[in-house]
Design brief:
Number of strands: 5
Number of helices: 4
Order of helices and strands: EHHEEHHEE
Strand content: 5-15%
Structural class: alpha+beta
Helix content: 40-55%
Shape: elongated
Distance between the termini: 31 Å
Oligomer: single chain
Number of domains: 1
Strand order of the largest sheet: 1-3-2
Length: 173
């Protein structure tokens, strides 16, 4: 059976936008010493946006490392972020679910890293979400489709066992 792979490509801008929205929602609830919401006074500088891109790349590397050898390759330092994964034994629904786990992991990882900079308790939620996506991806990988059936039986098989110092052949009668 030939190996089949699928390329997943994530738009950096899409992940960056999603993470910015999530962090904005959290910032609405955070207040400074005077009780003023941080939402109106906090913006991301161009340097901070570059850091978010680094987090996205780190998330892709992390997922690829955790899921090896299912994830065959990832395109390092590329825009957009991409990975190729082996789908030989996954059915169509599992292929799409695996892709969703990957995208969710990248979003959660990036949000987690951004939130740990401000030491907010919300970072823990994203850490748990990362773990959930990773566990789901692993379960999809190990939920294999059964091999095709065959009409052959044990009587059709032949083989050999190495015994010192000669080789014996097993024959079914």
């Amino acid at each position: 059976m030939a190996e089949e792979t699928k390329l997943i490509t994530i738009s950096m801008e899409s992940i960056e936008g999603d993470v910015t929205k999530q962090v904005s929602v959290i910032a609405k609830r955070l207040k400074d010493k005077e009780g003023v919401s941080l939402f109106g006074s906090t913006t991301l500088s161009s340097v901070e946006k570059m850091v978010i891109r680094q987090y996205i790349e780190s998330a892709v590397r992390s997922f690829a490392g955790e899921m090896a050898p299912v994830v065959k390759t990832y395109l390092d330092s590329s825009l957009p972020a991409s990975v190729t994964f082996n789908v030989t034994r996954l059915n169509e629904g599992h292929k799409n679910a695996f892709e969703s786990c990957f995208m969710g992991y990248v979003r959660a990882y990036t949000a987690y890293m951004v939130l740990t900079l401000s030491s907010t308790e919300q970072a823990k939620v994203y850490s748990e979400e990362m773990n959930m996506h990773l566990k789901a991806a692993i379960q999809l990988v190990f939920d294999k489709m059964p091999p095709p059936t065959s009409v052959k039986t044990l009587k059709d098989m032949t083989g050999s066992i190495e015994n010192e110092p000669q080789l014996e052949t097993i024959k079914q009668g």
